[in-house]
Amino acid sequence: MLLGDVFPNFEADSTFGQMKLHDFLGDSWGVLFSHPGDFTPVCTIELGRAAQLSPEFSKRNVKLMALSVDSLQEHHDWSKDIMAYNNTEPGSQFPFPIIADDRRELVEKLGMLDPEEKDRNGMPLSARCVFVIGPDKKLKLSILYPATTGRNFDEILRVIDSLQLTAHNRVATPVDWRPGNSVMVPPRIPETEAATLFPAGIYTKDLPSGKK
Predict the structure, then answer these.
(1) N or C: which end of the chain has fewer CB atoms below 10 A?
(2) 14 near 65, Cβ under 8 Å?
(3) Which of 169, 124, 143 is nearest to 31 (CA)?
(4) Is 208 exposed, middle or buried (0-12, 13-18, 19+ CB in 10 A)?
(5) What CA–CA distance (Å, rounded) separates 12 from 14?
(6) What is the pLDDT of residue 124?
(7) Per-residue pLDDT tens over the stretch 81-94
(8) Burial of 30: CB neighbours in 10 Å, binned 0-12, 13-18, 19+
(9) Which residue numbers are catalytic?
(10) What is the distance between the alpha carbons of residues 128 and 126, in angstroms, rounded to a whole number?
């Protein structure tokens, strides 16, 4: 899939019951992320971190969804391990759905497989994919990590802040940007218009090419 494509409106079983993607998202943003396998160390602490940050995603009107090629029962059993790892109160509900794709239909359709990492039967495992989906159901961002590299969920929050800011304002966010930092005026906006759009002031730096 390419950025701007409408994300497939798939149906799947999850720990929250049967779900249809577009209905589940409603008017929210969404993050769909896959992991190689339940009960594995990196995946356990990744989903643990995502669970810890779920209130931050909720503040941004973002719904999380995890996915792997394991069964629904394995997801239910594994979620207890994740909650225990996080020292969560016993009996608490895991905060977002984990999608079961034990027939590998979704991971193949969405290009989520890692050919270098295989299960005991020699079948490729799902990679660590991240898809950010906008309220318009279009793909806004995709990141693909190999199975051997854990993700940075603080970075995923940062890019969501950038996506949401730039969706409603004619700005771009620079390298290492964080909310509250200065933003950049896109080069397609003339300086005279930029001065009107941003009355608090803009600044430029002259460069050898003559471009600012």
Answers:
(1) C
(2) yes
(3) 143
(4) exposed
(5) 6
(6) 82
(7) 999 999 988 778 89
(8) buried
(9) 43, 136
(10) 7
Q: Nearest-CA neighbor of 132 among 143, 146, 121?
A: 143
Phi-psi region of 137 (alpha: psi -120 to 50; beta: other; left: phi over 0): left
Which residue is it, tokens 């497989």?
113
Structure tokens at 4: 């701007």
The partner residues of 99 in beta bridges, in order of sequence, read 14, 67
Q: What is the pTM of this model?
A: 0.92
List the Cα angle 93/113/25 in 5-degree steps: 40
CB 133 within 8 A of CB 3: no
How far is residue 63 from each of residues 19, 23, 59, 108, 189, measured CA to CA in Å?
A: 13, 12, 10, 23, 33
Contact 18, 11 (CB under 8 A): yes
Q: Which residues of the chain have pLDDT under 50?
A: none
Predicted confidence at residue 90, as pLDDT, reads 78
